[in-house]
Write a structure and sequence with these properties.
By secondary structure, the chain is mainly α. Helix content is 58%, strand content 6%.
Length: 398
């Protein structure tokens, strides 16, 4: 296909500079590479190597892959763009204020209606997906050079350049996946060890005993785990005034959830409520659970399924905003509920407990040395991401 067009008029006072054209062409090629990989990702179903919770690793991998693809000679696209704009080897075009249109100026791949150009998106897309997924390449293996598309050499060169980074990133991603998978168990061990180091029935022991449950629930709700621990502390008096069943055993109700519409076990106790700001005592039924984990799970369901708490879930890591939204939604009748919850979350007791958990995570818990990167999921993410940066940069310097 030929494009019939008049030469493009350029301002003679602003003659093209070869270095600037080359830089612009390379930047455009880099953007193209990133868009190419993103398109391939969007078109694929993904794979087990990059589960949804490891989005950070996949993005890091794709960014470095795009950078590697455009190093050195790159994809060849930058040279074509430079020639079309009058840069590169086309010195005459740089000196000529009248720049021929791309179809005439480009000395790279012909813009014809042949199979070579039309096969580029399909061939490049298929092989890029193969590379990302770690599958054998589906490139044309015909031995007859005359039967090969003009794009085959380009695609194969691209895949060869990207392969070292792809292999390195694959290993890094597997390590990252394992680290994140181990993080909850490691956090639970550190929390348990920290709890045992505190005095019985102490506020710090209560915080440490439920911290791993709070972390899991907070990740699902998208809020700060300290807010959940603070609320449990407020509802149970740091675990000292828990709701009891009729036989004297604990109901494990950490959030003071009443039994309205509840078909499971329940416990009937006296509770303090506020009417028009005046405190009074009344008898009420509360839900009973088999463990603290069940209490956290039911709390998560309550907040996620009840529209009243939508604003609370939109608070993110803002503990004060979360507490205020709960109070406004009618979670509790205490007019100072939000103030009390925020004070506990940001208080010295919480800090002491969490600091001790971190120390046990770094030093080990008696069940073997616990790497700091496994103490919690965020720490694991940061550590492995930094390792990925170093490994990929080392490859790119070769």
């Amino acid at each position: 296909m030929r494009i019939a067009a008049s030469p493009i008029e350029l301002n003679p006072a602003q003659r093209p500079d070869a270095a600037r054209i080359d830089q612009a062409a390379r930047e455009f090629e880099g953007v193209f590479a990133q868009m190419l990989i993103k398109s391939m990702r969007d078109a694929s179903f993904g794979d087990a190597l990059f589960p949804g919770e490891n989005q950070l690793y996949r993005d890091l991998y794709d960014q470095r892959l795009a950078k590697s693809m455009t190093e050195g000679n790159g994809l060849g696209l930058a040279k074509v763009i430079a020639r079309q704009l009058g840069g590169g080897d086309a010195e005459a075009a740089v000196l000529d204020p009248r720049l021929a249109p791309p179809a005439d100026a480009a000395s790279g791949l012909p813009l014809t209606g042949g199979a070579g150009m039309s096969a580029l998106p399909e061939a490049l897309g298929a092989q890029t997906l193969d590379l990302i997924a770690g599958r054998p390449s589906s490139a044309n293996t015909a031995s007859d050079a005359s039967a090969r598309s003009p794009m085959d050499g380009f695609v194969e060169s691209l895949m060869q350049r990207a392969r070292p980074v792809a292999d390195a990133a694959t290993g890094i991603a597997r390590t990252a996946t394992a680290a994140v998978a181990q993080a909850p168990a490691a956090l639970e061990r550190a929390s348990r060890a920290a709890a045992e180091s505190f005095a019985p029935r102490s506020p710090e022991r209560f915080v440490a005993s439920i911290w791993s449950h709070a972390q899991a629930a907070a990740r699902e709700l998208g809020v700060d785990a300290k807010a959940l621990v603070a609320q449990a502390a407020l509802e149970t008096g740091w675990g000292r005034r828990t709701i009891q069943r009729g036989d004297g055993t604990t109901a494990n109700n950490l959030f003071g959830i009443k039994a309205t519409g509840w078909k499971g076990d329940r416990a009937t106790v006296n509770t303090h409520e506020y009417t028009n700001g005046v405190r009074h005592t009344e008898r009420a039924d509360f839900r009973a659970y088999g463990s603290p984990a069940e209490s956290f799970a039911d709390y998560v369901r309550l907040l996620k399924t009840n529209p009243r708490y939508r604003q609370a879930l939109e608070s993110g890591g803002d503990v004060r905003r979360f507490a205020s939204a709960l109070q406004q939604a009618g979670y509790a009748t205490d007019p100072r509920y939000a103030d009390k919850l925020s004070a506990i979350a940001n208080g010295p007791t919480m800090d002491r407990a969490l600091s001790t958990i971190s120390q046990f995570a770094r030093a080990g818990t008696g069940t073997g040395t616990l790497p700091a990167s496994h103490a919690a999921a965020p720490a694991a993410v940061n550590t492995v991401a930094e390792a990925a940066e170093r490994a990929v940069q080392a490859l790119l310097r070769r």
